[in-house]
């Protein structure tokens, strides 16, 4: 958002009919929808609050000529997308800020909106479609943060929707519209979707958050919905090929609502999807993409996809869907709205991926990545500042890791077989161990027992086992261990909006996501900077990896020539100065000696290759230059 946003919003309150003004506000919000910057939401919270209030006022007007103005309609769609992103894509925005923007305070405004909907006789009126987006976002908010169940306006909207829409003959009328076969696309009017999709979604979200004190019993809801629900599911299950996106949306919301009314009600289509004939019919109609589109808002669809994924043709369709199979998509499951228990979602997803992947090692890596992300989020929630390599950084990776270790008081080692095999992880763990940094090991992989160099480092510590107990219990043990009173902590000051000062511990999570080892060319002169770094780290030459940052394969050989042809003590002294400047540590004589030994091995190989061509050409020979003065930068 730009600095002019506050001025535009102030003007919008008095001149909302200006097309240029509406367009400017829309463009700024579209940019924000692309950037997803949480900082800007905090910075412009008051202006956003005014904009949301302006929208609700627009909806509550007795007339709505604004639906005829394209700039106004486009702005409202952009605001609706912003609100949806606020629910799903802003993980560090406080729930109270989300609630203040999405929840309308005065009840009379809601009543006016409902009255406007009920006065409309045209079932395809655009007003209903747009207003439905706001109620959908309220339902999403309630799913994400169940604490809003006690909000008076949330309770009031739920009671109104239930009494005046769901428990009415009109709702049953729209259900009967879905009894036909084949279905005409024309029946999916804005009003039908408001009743079947939006109202059902809102009620199911409320019931999942708080079903104990609802005015209607499950039996009453089943009496109202049961017969039509069963008929629709049975009728359309055998005609998946004719499904449209609108029909899938209606069925998904009915599944959610019926799941609240009858335990196991959501299992109906899941069980049907386990039938071989249904699986093959689904594969033949190539409609799996519709189910993929429903995964984010309705986590039960993952269970359906898992059941279907035992069919070979469906496996191929799922694998060929790139957005579905990309790795970041799988990690996003951790953030799904809590329609069902998180552990259940993760288990189903893992089993689904197991069916689709022939390389099951990747699934273990994905599972470990998900656990690491959950640990990261929990530590941040309790006030810790955490560094973790989510992006698997490349280049001079050791400098980045070393800086993170030096600035942290505790290192969390996430133990697994992949972690033990990683040269980068080994070098970083050794560096932390040598510095005397506190280490807290945690076990991620079932049936794994630390061995080798990893056992040497962690054997003196008590580790937290995330494989033998629930995540909530394990993370509680980990947090207690990190906050043990006898630990000398590095503290970082953070000033809140209330000018209160909090002390925040700083941690590094050493993730079990190793960068793949490179295949080194046999000739050191052909090595790139990355080859040199990988070679040094694999031989646990941590200091030399810092000193040789940005060096290709020729640089170490030139260094060897300098040591042989110049005053050795002068070269070593320069290296010592460079080590103190770059790492704040004296150069290890043992490490430097080992480095020279490895270089000699490379030089012997190089000379053996060059001898046969010595009589023909000398282009492979390193040229030794005279140096009057030498400074290693």
From TrEMBL:
Coiled-coil annotated residue ranges, if any: none
Listed InterPro entries: TIR_dom, Toll_tir_struct_dom_sf
Superkingdom of the organism of origin: Eukaryota
Protein name: TIR domain-containing protein
A Pfam family reported for this protein in Swiss-Prot or TrEMBL: TIR_2
All copies of domain TIR, residue ranges: 372-478
Organism: Rotaria magnacalcarata
Biological process (GO), any one: signal transduction
